[in-house]
Structure formats: C-alpha cells, structure tokens
Amino acid sequence: MRRAGVRSAGVEMTVRSIAWQDDAVQLLDQTVLPHEVRVLRLGDWRQVVDAIAAMRIRGAPAIGAAGAYAVALAAREALSQPDSFVQSLREAASRIRAARPTAVNLAWAVDRVMALVDEGTNPAVVADRLLQEAHRIAEEDAEANRRLAAIGAERIRRGERILTICNTGTLATVDVGTAIGILRSAHEAGKGIHVFACETRPFLQGSRLTAWELLAHGIPFHLITDGAAGWLMARGFVDRVITGADRVAANGDVANKIGTYTLAVLARHHGIPFWVAAPLSTVDPHTRSGEAIPIEERDPKEVTHFHGTPVAPEGTPALNYAFDVTPAELISAIVTEAGIAEPPYDRSLRGLLEGGGRLRRARSEGSA
Ligand code: MRU
Q1: Residue 213: helix, strand or coil by DSSP?
Q2: Does the Cβ of 103 fall within 6 Å of ligand 1?
Q3: How far apart are CA 115 and CA 93, in angstroms?
Q4: For 267, which DSSP code?
C-alpha cells in the first residue's frame, strides 16, 4: 500500500489518511490538522460513524472507504450472535450509510459491501468477504485518483493559474486526490502552475488542509479568502477553476462544498473554464438531477464559533449548508479516471460509467 509520505510544517505524514491496521480503522484526525498530527485507531463501527459525522475523516472518497471498513467492523462484532448476524449487520449498515447524506460515495460503498451478504453463508465467511471488499474499494480509489490526476494534468497548459476550493487531496481520498491530484501531477510534470486555494469557511478545509498539502508538495500557491475569488478573476489572475465533487447527478449537476456554485457563476461571467474532478464512484446514475441531491445542513455553531471561540454575538442565528449544487450548464468538463466527460453530460457520463465498469471487470478478471 502506498503511503501519503508528505511533509508539511516540519511534520512527516507517514500514514495514509485511512488504512486498515491490526483489526481496526486507522485514520488521521482532520479536525486537529494542521497543528497536530493525531492518528486514531477505531475498532468499533460506531466510532467510525462518529468520526465521519464529526468530520474527523472527510472528503467523498475517504468517507466511502471509511464506511466500507465500518461495515467490516460491524460484521466482526455481529459474529458473536450468529442467529441475528444478518439483521444486526443490516441495522449497523443503515446507520453507517446515514452518517453524512450528500457524498454518494458513502452510500455507494456501504451498498457495495452489503451486496455480498447472504443468509445462507457462514457468517465468518461473510465477514471476511466484506473486509476484502472494503480493501478493494480503498485500492480502487487509490488507482482511480492516480489515473484521473494524470488524465487531467495532461490538459493543463504551462504556467496556468488555477483556483480551487475545499480539500480534495490525499486527506480527502485514499491516495493523491482528485482536483489536488491534478494539481500535483501538473506540478510534478514541470508545468509551472500556481494555485489559489479558497480558505473554505466555516470548516476551513482550504486553509487548514489544502495549504498543508500544497506546502508539503512544494506547489506554489496563495491562500485566499472565499470572497476574494471574483476579484482575482476580474483582474485576470485565474486561468481555470478545478473543484472536487460529492455527488455528480446523471445529468451532470454537481454537489460540492458550499461556495462551489458561486465560483462556477463567477467563472462563467469571466469566461474561465470550470472543471470538476471526480472518480466514477462519485457519479450517481440513480440521481437524475441536482434537485434530488440531499444537501447536508450542519450545526450553526460551526458558523458562529471557531474551535469553541465565538465569532458572532451570542444568539446569532446562522445557516450552515455544507454543500451547494452547480448546474451542469456551468461546468466545462468532468474529469474521471475513465476519461473526460463534456456536455451533454447525460450521454458522456453514461458512456464513461459503462466503459469504467468494463475496465474494472477486465482488471479483476485479469488479476484473478
Ligand atoms: O465537507 P467535506 O469536507 O467532506 O466536503 C468535501 C468536498 O466538498 C470535496 O470537494 C469532495 O468531497 C471531493 S474530495 C476528493
């Protein structure tokens, strides 16, 4: 297994954002980064649910892998009561699936491992099967990241100045990341890119996590306030916007971190290409359009307080939508591990999903 192996602010990051180690899920606590590198060992699926809900682990692909491992932990626990094995497992799976609603990777990964459960098989065999499938989900995500990053980077021109939001790197996935994966590949290919990273209020994934990763990889960048994006575009400082996605609907509408829609409108106004980078596990053919995507609302305290310190007068009402939906018409391209989808997305995404499925089957038959 490849390790993240990044160094930032003098700290060597020697573990992956998520891994399975000694019968437990091991993850980096993203709520304390960048000031502290704290590794959590979670041996109970309920702890994984809490970690996902509290955003100790976050980012669509990373919570997908975490959800799959949580089901594997639930299966091991359920072995102690073989008569109710399947029922307890189903109950746990539905709680794991609901830990966060917007990123489809979580539901997708839980459903994928649970599809291997059947009443007639020995529970110990089922439990082992689920763990192996969770490993496959993690490995496939790592490979999808690498392919997607290479495909996207090839199209980046020398010297581009690229604006991004939230954190879509190693921390948000199982390997190099999606949008940040493209930035890394372009940087490593010597394209001389410069990145503008939005700080991403209120959870500050941009300033705490993306800045940490960009520093670690030596990618030139500036951190900017979310409100500065339009002014930078107006001054001609931005050549492209690249964001990640939490769910891509069948028609190409994209749910992603709150503020993404604003960036897409601004990019259109200024004639700047707006890209979304996402593995096919984030494309949800069962959600027809953005209107059907559930948007997570989080505790208003994340807006009125920072790390427990109030940043608004006591009693201030706040809205805390964690995501927004960018309509397909504002998106220039969606970069996946199976290729780049362009409008009309209903057709191009369907083609990539079918091709991607064939690719995966061919690879697993080849390795069998
Ligand atoms: O609330 P978060 O931090 O989990 O939101 C994450 C994002 O919006 C990312 O852009 C998305 O999950 C893609 S991560 C490769």
Answers
A1: helix
A2: yes
A3: 11
A4: H
Q: Is 244 exposed, middle or buried (0-12, 13-18, 19+ CB in 10 A)?
A: buried
- The residues carrying an active-site annotation are 246
Mind listing the pLDDT tens digit of every residue in the chain (368 residues)?
334 444 554 444 445 789 999 999 999 999 999 999 999 999 999 999 999 999 999 999 999 999 999 999 999 999 999 999 999 999 999 999 999 999 999 999 999 999 999 988 999 999 999 999 999 999 999 999 999 999 999 999 999 999 999 999 999 999 999 999 999 999 999 999 999 999 999 999 999 999 999 999 999 999 999 999 999 999 999 999 999 999 999 999 999 999 999 999 999 999 999 999 999 999 999 999 999 999 999 999 999 999 889 999 999 999 999 999 999 999 999 999 999 999 999 999 999 999 876 556 555 554 32
Determine if ligand 1 sits within 6 Å of the CB of residue 246.
Answer: yes
Ligand 1 within 6 A of 324 CB? no
Between the CA of 148 and the centroid of ligand 1 the distance, in Å, is 16
Choose the residue to mutate in 52, 166, 334 for probing ligand 1, maximizing ligand atoms within 8 Å of C-beta.
Answer: 166
Mutate which of 168, 182, 212, 335 to test ligand 1's pocket (most atoms within 8 Å of Cβ)? 168
Q: Alpha helices of the chain — where are they, by DSSP H?
A: 45-53, 60-78, 85-97, 104-114, 123-154, 179-188, 211-217, 229-234, 260-269, 301-304, 345-367
Q: Which of 271, 261, 251, 247 is nearest to 343 (CA)?
A: 251
User: In this structure, what are the phi and psi dihedrals at residue 53, rounded to the nearest 5 degrees?
Assistant: -65, -35
Residue 13 structure tokens: 């990051």
Structure-derived torsion over alpha carbons of residues 13, 17, 20, 26, reported in degrees to the nearest 10: 80
Residue 93 CA to residue 88 CA, distance in Å, equals 9
What tokens were used for 285?
A: 């053919």
